[in-house]
């Protein structure tokens, strides 16, 4: 397997993604197929067609294309993942797919985890850990799945992990953009917070950074790049962000009664990485284990072609740009996008040694950091006020793009921890 070169990685590809005619036709086919199941989800992603294509291809591949897991188990694993975040929208979508004639899942499984085969139930521990504290996953978790009477093959483990990570992260997107089943019923199918075309929300909250100020900060940082911090200073700034800075205390999720039968240990939730109970767990240094140098090749070796699809999706989400910020045009947004991506992964204890985390504090105001952390870690606790309070001068499509970045950076973080554990088990 050929590894992608550095300039193809999510953090180094600076190309502006476009789609050829064949790619557009393929995306339209997938879009029409998915629209029947998830119209609100796809309509929101439709703001960014260059991303929508790779997203739909990946989701279609892991649920419907060749792979080691039976189709009914794939959809049930998706239900388990979405239920972990109380995402009834995705649970209902996957429940419908599970019962469809093409899949013909066992209806009794929908009564809860106690009704499914032990092999599938054994995945629950990894589901719980990946959803909330992925740094806790170890090679022993992989070993417990692959040993014994109801053992998993390594290929099955990888496909299951990809599905879990995909639907954990997609739950963040669903709540982050305001999609959920309850709002659909209340608003006759319009399940978004405030999609006012492509205009920003008027008014600014005290302390929130304006687009003009943000652009000035990016310019200032660029001009001061000669004053590079030491490795110790970088580590200290990273630790500050891991600690959550001055962000408010965590908001606990309350399990929905209609989804509780898909969830065990409901009190287990996100904990700030810097406050982790197992203090000997070190920071995950991306220079030691990265997606492009390690994760990509491992996942592709055990689950053919999925690495290519994931790699493209990560790249597009990270590099997507229209060179705008709100009403401003011809703007290089790369510095802002990198701050968002690295802050998301910082929340999960992943550190990029070559990044100056002071930029996160400069470019992401308190409201935006609160929003990102809530969407990543407590997505079902999101409120309309949380959503409306961020990026008020930005276009609606730009807010959707930030939420797409949350989806992808979070998914990549989960995969990095899981694939590193898998590699350690194999060596």
TrEMBL record:
Family according to the record: Belongs to the sestrin family.
Protein name in UniProt: Putative p53 regulated pa26 nuclear protein sestrin
Xref: InterPro entries: AhpD-like, Sestrin
This protein's UniProt keywords: Cytoplasm
PANTHER family, per the entry: P53 REGULATED PA26 NUCLEAR PROTEIN SESTRIN, SESTRIN HOMOLOG
GO MF entry, a single one: L-leucine binding
Pfam families named among the record's database cross-references: PA26
Compartment(s) of residence: Cytoplasm
GO cellular component, one term: nucleus
Cytoplasm as UniProt keyword: yes
Gene Ontology annotations of biological process type: cellular response to L-leucine; cellular response to leucine starvation; negative regulation of TORC1 signaling; positive regulation of macroautophagy; regulation of response to reactive oxygen species
Origin superkingdom: Eukaryota
